[in-house]
């Protein structure tokens, strides 16, 4: 045990860097994914036919493809068409597109679940459609979409470990490097697992906190 | 009074949902300050008529003229065109609508519900919107509830907030669709009293109701609709007196009160 803790201490900076990168990747993907998801969810429900079709296609492709395949695609395809992305950027791209589809779909569901009387009451006092969306529909939809949105965040933290495949130095890859040096396989995998767990529990708690604040209303 | 232009004029209104014709040429006129109740059996098209006036439904033929302006459609080269969202929104804001199921915004307080239209449609500043909202909430007897969320209010209180929300916009015409039907019996009276107070203040009201006593007390005229048409349009004394048409007599016999 003592030797394991010594090894952790020796490897503290690489592991810390890996952990930070994992968090950065997850945050970037959830932010970009939320932007894409908002556009996607609104278009799926209210967009013109062509845009509904395209976003439906996007959602189905993203949801039907393993995340690992998305990551490999984001890593190899852009260079073919002349866009150069480093591994981290490619990974964030893949995770964002994945998250965008999921968030788009869950936002569509949340918007659709709002009773039609809400939009009618908003229009009847003279709000335009964009105003109705901004001040009446989205605030309600985002509220009910919060728990699954947090879930998507948890998926992204876990999914970021897949980026180790394309050589992104996030927590899992750093852990594997340390294992390669120390041969303390089980100990370090458990250690990494606990770090992922801590990140996910924190995110979960954050979600619960926001939920408490906006509910009871 | 005769030469004054009516506030609302509905002429030959036709509305169908798919192949089902729901309004079959409705004519109805309201003068400023007039209170008109619409009665009629379920499915006769009362709600649909109000929704057409509030431009929540499209209609296929006829005109609705509000304070001299033809609303909902424009005629270009002899063809009817539905107006754009922005224009429809402006016209909608001239009428207030109170719904059977309140439809308060659950994420906003009572004051927030009333203020939304004042801020975003009427473009009042925050302070001014709040003071107008407070004034209307106290007008409907809810001064102490302005910071409550809808879920913290009784049905009767929610409906009174909805009435304040509609009236605060200073509409030319207020449409009320069975505003007490979703309420527990003991909460009906407080809402009816609120409506009566507003009528006494001189608002122009078009009221769909199943409360016959209320219709008789509050209205200048009562309109009886049946199967998508206006069958009777007369002062309450006449409607509830010796009913002229067979269908009205039958309807009143089946509803009573
Ligand atoms: N969105 C819709 N699609 C299809 N048919 C509809 C729709 N809304 C109403 N209808 C039909 O139109 C007719 C008139 O309905 P409306 O709601 O206007 O009646 P109403 O007089 O308000 O009845 P009630 O007293 O029960 O409220 C009914 O036959 C109804 O089934
Ligand atoms: Mg009705």
TrEMBL record, chain A:
<feature type="domain" description="ABC transmembrane type-1">
    <location>
        <begin position="19"/>
        <end position="207"/>
    </location>
</feature>
<keyword id="KW-0812">Transmembrane</keyword>
<protein>
    <submittedName>
        <fullName>Amino acid ABC transporter permease</fullName>
    </submittedName>
</protein>
<feature type="transmembrane region" description="Helical">
    <location>
        <begin position="20"/>
        <end position="46"/>
    </location>
</feature>
<keyword id="KW-0472">Membrane</keyword>
<dbReference type="InterPro" id="IPR010065">
    <property type="entry name" value="AA_ABC_transptr_permease_3TM"/>
</dbReference>
<keyword id="KW-1003">Cell membrane</keyword>
<keyword id="KW-0813">Transport</keyword>
<keyword id="KW-1133">Transmembrane helix</keyword>
<dbReference type="InterPro" id="IPR000515">
    <property type="entry name" value="MetI-like"/>
</dbReference>
<feature type="transmembrane region" description="Helical">
    <location>
        <begin position="182"/>
        <end position="203"/>
    </location>
</feature>
<dbReference type="InterPro" id="IPR043429">
    <property type="entry name" value="ArtM/GltK/GlnP/TcyL/YhdX-like"/>
</dbReference>
<dbReference type="InterPro" id="IPR035906">
    <property type="entry name" value="MetI-like_sf"/>
</dbReference>
<dbReference type="Pfam" id="PF00528">
    <property type="entry name" value="BPD_transp_1"/>
</dbReference>
<keyword id="KW-0029">Amino-acid transport</keyword>
<feature type="transmembrane region" description="Helical">
    <location>
        <begin position="67"/>
        <end position="87"/>
    </location>
</feature>
<comment type="similarity">
    <text>Belongs to the binding-protein-dependent transport system permease family. HisMQ subfamily.</text>
</comment>
Automatic annotation (TrEMBL), chain B:
<keyword id="KW-0029">Amino-acid transport</keyword>
<keyword id="KW-0067">ATP-binding</keyword>
<keyword id="KW-0813">Transport</keyword>
<protein>
    <submittedName>
        <fullName>Amino acid ABC transporter ATP-binding protein</fullName>
    </submittedName>
</protein>
<dbReference type="InterPro" id="IPR003439">
    <property type="entry name" value="ABC_transporter-like_ATP-bd"/>
</dbReference>
<dbReference type="InterPro" id="IPR030679">
    <property type="entry name" value="ABC_ATPase_HisP-typ"/>
</dbReference>
<keyword id="KW-1003">Cell membrane</keyword>
<dbReference type="Pfam" id="PF00005">
    <property type="entry name" value="ABC_tran"/>
</dbReference>
<dbReference type="InterPro" id="IPR003593">
    <property type="entry name" value="AAA+_ATPase"/>
</dbReference>
<dbReference type="InterPro" id="IPR017871">
    <property type="entry name" value="ABC_transporter-like_CS"/>
</dbReference>
<dbReference type="GO" id="GO:0005524">
    <property type="term" value="F:ATP binding"/>
</dbReference>
<keyword id="KW-0547">Nucleotide-binding</keyword>
<keyword id="KW-0472">Membrane</keyword>
<feature type="domain" description="ABC transporter">
    <location>
        <begin position="8"/>
        <end position="252"/>
    </location>
</feature>
<dbReference type="InterPro" id="IPR027417">
    <property type="entry name" value="P-loop_NTPase"/>
</dbReference>
<comment type="similarity">
    <text>Belongs to the ABC transporter superfamily.</text>
</comment>
<dbReference type="InterPro" id="IPR050086">
    <property type="entry name" value="MetN_ABC_transporter-like"/>
</dbReference>
